Amino acid sequence: MLNIRTYPLGFIQTNCYVISNAKKECLIFDPGGNGEQLIKELNRLHLKPIAILLTHAHFDHIGAVDDVRDAYHIPVYIHPTEKTWLTNAEKNGSAKYAEIPNIIAKEADVMLNHEEKMSIGDFEFTISHTPGHSPGSITYYFESDGFAIVGDTLFQNSIGRTDLPGGNEKQLLKSIHTKLLTLPVETVIYPGHGPASIVQAEMDSNPFLNGF
After folding, report:
1. Contact assessment for residue 19 and residue 47, using Cβ atoms and an 8 Å cutoff
2. How many structural domains does the chain have?
3. Among residues of the chain, what percentage have pLDDT more than 90?
4. Which of 33, 88, 102, 169 meets the CB 3.0–4.6 Å disulfide criterion with 9?
């Protein structure tokens, strides 16, 4: 059974998820900031990071990518649609905000396919391309443990913004209805911000999904 730890990091407290197994290996999802703090925590827990996986490349999800990548010499995975966003503050959105510095990172190491089953070390999961909030948004579904890392596509009682560059509301709703709400109803949803939820709860009470 996998262990899931949540760390709200960075300027707007983006959820960074650290998924670890019995061997203390771990995957790191969306390290959005506070890299030194995150590395100290990983070392305190004696975890061994083996990969960084991004749900998408908006600035608040990538702020500590290079800190963690360089500390552990591990690869970064991303959807190819957002390949250039890591190195471009205009594309990742950080250049829009005067109160924060431009956030950039080196290019990702591995491009993800639209839909595929993957294994990294002993971790097995399915990738789904869920565009709408951003064109390269990805969901990572861990079927055997009954949870999905969904980024900013779906939240508890809300959905992702579509007013940012590359956003598309119709596409977002299609992704949610065809890729997320079709998961088993007991699947736990881990979003990019805020608390976790389950598929059934969002089907029943999410006001943005009326008519499902």
Report:
1. no
2. 1
3. 92
4. 33
Which one-letter DSSP state was computed for residue 59? G
- What range defines the domain where residue 203 resides? 3-209
Q: Residue 38's domain is classified under what CATH number?
A: 3.60.15.10
pLDDT band at 197 (very low <50, low <70, confident <90, very high): very high
d(CA 60, CA 179): 24
pTM: 0.96
Residue 200: HSE in the Cβ half-sphere, 13 Å Cα cutoff: 5
Taking alpha carbons only, the member of 114, 94, 113, 119 closest to residue 104 is 94
Count of positions (residues) in the chain: 212
Amino acid at 97: Y
Type of residue found at 100? I
| Residue owning tokens 């250049």 | 95
